[in-house]
Amino acid sequence: MEVISALLPKPSRDVLTGIGDDCAVIRPRHGTDLRLLKTDALVEGIHFAPGTLPERVGWKALCRPLSDIAAMGGTPLHAIITVAAPAGWTTATWKGLYRGIGKAARAHGVSVVGGETVRSPGPAFLSVSLTGAVPKNRLKLRSGAKTGDLICVTGRLGGSLRSGRHLRFSPRLEEGQWLGNRKGVTAMMDLSDGLGNDLPKLAEESGCSFRIDPDSLPRHRGCTVTEALADGEDYELLLTVSPKAWPSLMKRWDTRFPRTPLTCIGRMTRRDLPPTPLPSGYDHLRPTKS
Amino acid sequence: MEVISALLPKPSRDVLTGIGDDCAVIRPRHGTDLRLLKTDALVEGIHFAPGTLPERVGWKALCRPLSDIAAMGGTPLHAIITVAAPAGWTTATWKGLYRGIGKAARAHGVSVVGGETVRSPGPAFLSVSLTGAVPKNRLKLRSGAKTGDLICVTGRLGGSLRSGRHLRFSPRLEEGQWLGNRKGVTAMMDLSDGLGNDLPKLAEESGCSFRIDPDSLPRHRGCTVTEALADGEDYELLLTVSPKAWPSLMKRWDTRFPRTPLTCIGRMTRRDLPPTPLPSGYDHLRPTKS
Q1: Where do the DSSP E strands lie in chain B?
Q2: Residues in chain B closer than 8 A to A110 (CB atoms)
């Protein structure tokens, strides 16, 4: 909210990107790696249904901000986790939750270095803050796309809530780092709110418009085009690629990640051209479906 | 909870202090300053009463973790803030909240670099994550106290909830940095849960016991000794000082901070001696009084 930014002090000069990208990016006084900072919250009844296996909740709580680190080309480092728990939580609930967090931390090389547990008089609430690092030349922002760049997505879209995929996805960290190392990749973000919501944000940050072919979207089995555009919680990467770099990048991608499609779905256009109309059905605030 | 630590992967070698001190302490690959990481949550109905001025809530939300940075001798850098808001929040509520956050950020040199707002189906929930830095030789931990060290507190204790002080205190950042630069200061922590709860934690981390004279506690006007020990939310600094360093330290403190008392209240003793019995009435999970 712009109203809010006006109430906050001007960020210090070491802040390269603050509010408005997947992560905040900070230039350290020493060394060449940039620092990444991200926070992400899960609310019971919004991001997971009451009764969801605690282990799944823990996994998702850590993997969501990991997906943002992935979208910058970054490597995750340290996590701090706050849990506000309803009075009814048993030792088994806590253990399940931290088993899921621990699994995700081990899988992705994250050190959990602190946190806090408090009582919630309402639903459960989890907040995860993550630090990460990215070499300067590997950083990808939302703002780097140019008119004419190709628009691509990793994996397949749609049906995440219905299938439960939102509770067991793996953040695209390796893919993000690999793509970060490719000069031809001009912008990147993660798909959490659905392509119909997220692509306009990337275009806005880059000062472009876009045309996509909705029929070309890589969809999960049984998903309609609308679902692929609007369901959200895909946790795939959305990126733009200079057309020159695309043929070689695609070939190398297929060798490196043979089981994950990288699909070209459209092209960035001049700002003054109308974008492809997209359904943006995803509502961050709606009750979750599963 | 030890049960939880066992479920998490072993922290990486750059983690000097993880769960168990005021902040996590991380050794960066480059430079000499250590990095500090802290998260802190406020829950409506626990840490502030429904109906509290949003500006006060915002101030407190940022100042609480700042107090933890102060307790390490650190300098705060960047904050990310998550707010889960009930449906009833108006633009005025949001503005008030961020006005308070902005004031605290300006007063203490913090850059707010990101965050997230989501809907809460229950009470309001705020989570603030802070980074900070501290030169290696200025870092103070809870674990550095030695048998024979004097136990000291800054300011006055007691009555914070009743007087509303918990909503408008200033974290002791300057004092913490100044004390961090004194070699004679052997351990430090902030007083958030009440001396009766916090001193035993410092003693435990240092492998010591303690004797204090409860009547010597610097109290706020109208507070009993029990309130000074057990009310909590003082956000003062608790520190231990080598007896040799005390006379000169006290003199220099009085010159530097003439309006804030630094009071010696007791002494660290051998681990096998019984500690002074203290009331630990503060319950992190109780509903707040004001």
Answers
A1: 15-17, 24-26, 33-43, 75-85, 111-119, 125-135, 150-154, 185-191, 209-212, 236-241, 262-269
A2: 9
Share of chain A above pLDDT 70, in %: 96
More confident residue, A4 or B223: B223
Q: Are A24 and B80 spatial neighbours (Cβ–Cβ below 8 Å)?
A: yes
The burial of B10, by beta-carbon neighbours within 10 Å (0-12 exposed, 13-18 middle, 19 or more buried), is given as: exposed
The pLDDT-based confidence of A283 (bands split at 50, 70, 90) is: low
Residue B287's CB is within 10 A of a number of other CB atoms, namely: 11
* Least CB–CB distance from A118: residue in B4, B46, B111: B46
**pTM across the whole model:** 0.90
Q: Is the ipTM beyond the 0.90 threshold?
A: no
For the segment B49-84, what is each residue's pLDDT rounded down to a tens digit? 999 999 999 999 999 999 999 999 999 999 999 999
Give the closest-approach CA distance of B69 to chain A in angstroms.
14
* CA distance linking residue B44 with residue B57, whole number of Å: 9
What does the alpha-carbon distance between residue B59 and residue A115 come to, in Å, rounded to a whole number? 21
- Substitution target from B15, B30, B39 for chain A, most A beta carbons within 10 A: B39
pLDDT of residue B287: 38
What is the sign, positive or negative, of the torsion defined by CA atoms of A28, A75, B75, B25?
negative
Whose CA is closest to A46, among A36, A30, A57? A57
Cβ B61 vs Cβ B183: under 8 Å: no
In the three-class reduction of DSSP (H, G, I as helix; E, B as strand; rest coil), residue B13 is classed as coil
pLDDT digits (tens, 9 = 90+) for B140-152: 999 999 999 999 9
Q: Which site among B15, B21, B82, B117 would you substitute to test the A interface, given the most A Cβ atoms closer than 10 Å to its Cβ?
A: B82
**Cα angle for residues A159, A229, A170 (degrees, 5° grid):** 50
Which residues of chain A make contact with B32, given a CB cutoff of 8 A?
A: 30
> What is the per-residue pLDDT for B2?
61
Residue B204 contacts A where some CB pair is shorter than 8 Å: no
Angle at A171 between CA A150 and CA A288, to 5 degrees: 100
